[in-house]
Amino acid sequence: MRYLVLSDIHANLQALEATLEAADAQHPWDVLLVLGDLVGYGGDPNAVVDRVRALAGALVIRGNHDKVAAGLMEATSFNPLARHAVEWTAAELTDTNREWLAALPEGPTLVDEGIEICHGAPFDEDAYLLGASDAGLAFATVERPLCLFGHTHLPAVFRHDQTGVYAAGSPKGDAYQVSLDEGRYLVNCGAVGQPRDGDPRAAFGLVNTDEQTVTILRVPYPVRAAQDRILAAGLPERLAQRLAVGR
Ligand code: ZN
After folding, report:
1. Dihedral, CA of residue 69, residue 64, residue 226 and residue 96, to nearest 10
2. What is the mean pLDDT of residues 136-157?
3. Is the peptide bond prior to 220 cis by the omega test (within 30 degrees of 0)?
4. Helix or strand run (H / E) with residue 209
5. pLDDT tens digits for 123-138?
């Protein structure tokens, strides 16, 4: 089975389209996994939700921006930029898309006998897994050898074996492959719509269960067009600028 892994699309339709195009052309997949935060920050929330809804058989869980935009949670924990964008998003969403987002399940969700997915962490969908100590807490609650997560917008690989929990490599470049072995893994395949690791290209993942690999891939997209959509929506300029630098 080949899983296409998308997280943190954040209403960036241009990045989503480029990612799907690259995946269809070069990285054939069977099932789509979406790890939350379809909306927030970007200028095309309805188009992104429509696009994901149209992908048959996708397994989608919610993120914190989806929760706030759908009216399930207050934006009190959000910084002013994120809050501005999520309030605009909430007003912009069609009733159908708001209801669809509100009905998304909370992770973690078990995908198959080897894989589970969550937005932030398996013990708390809103928690950030940034370092090995966070990963240690997460490994205590995961139920599958591979747990895919998002939320930080930073590609990362954590491994748990008899020596402990540690960051295993630093995912960079066009394609970074992890070979799964007897260890347990927490893998963040990065953000499609708002990368923050200094590489402005959209990030996504491909899990191949026959080959036991996870590959973190990058694809360029028309950043300028995505920026124009943010500015056209009247959202803060900083949200457009950050896309160009991937921060
Ligand atoms: Zn996010």
Report:
1. -40
2. 98
3. no
4. none
5. 999 999 999 999 999 9
Across the chain, the runs of DSSP E, i.e. the strands, are: 2-6, 31-34, 59-60, 109-110, 115-117, 146-149, 156-161, 164-167, 175-179, 184-188, 202-208, 213-219
**Residue 153: how many other CB atoms lie within 10 Å:** 22
- Cα(185) to centroid of ligand 1, in Å? 21
pLDDT (tens digit per residue) in 90-109: 999 999 999 999 999 999 99
C-alpha of residue 183 to centroid of ligand 1, in Å: 27
Q: What does the DSSP 8-state code read for residue 105?
A: P
Asked whether the whole model's pTM tops 0.90, one would answer yes
Nearest Cα neighbor of 66 from 140, 137, 120 is 120
Cα(39)–Cα(116) distance, rounded to whole angstroms?
A: 22
Cβ 116 vs Cβ 138: under 8 Å? no
Distance CA 113, CA 128 (A): 25
pLDDT band at 17 (very low <50, low <70, confident <90, very high): very high
Mention every residue, 6+ apart, whose C-beta is less than 8 A from residue 96. none
What mean pLDDT do residues 14-26 have?
97
Residues with CB under 5 A from ligand 1 (ion): 8, 37
Centre of ligand 1 to C-alpha 163, Å, is 31
Neighbours of 168 (CB within 10 A): 18
CA of 153 to the centre of ligand 1 (A): 6
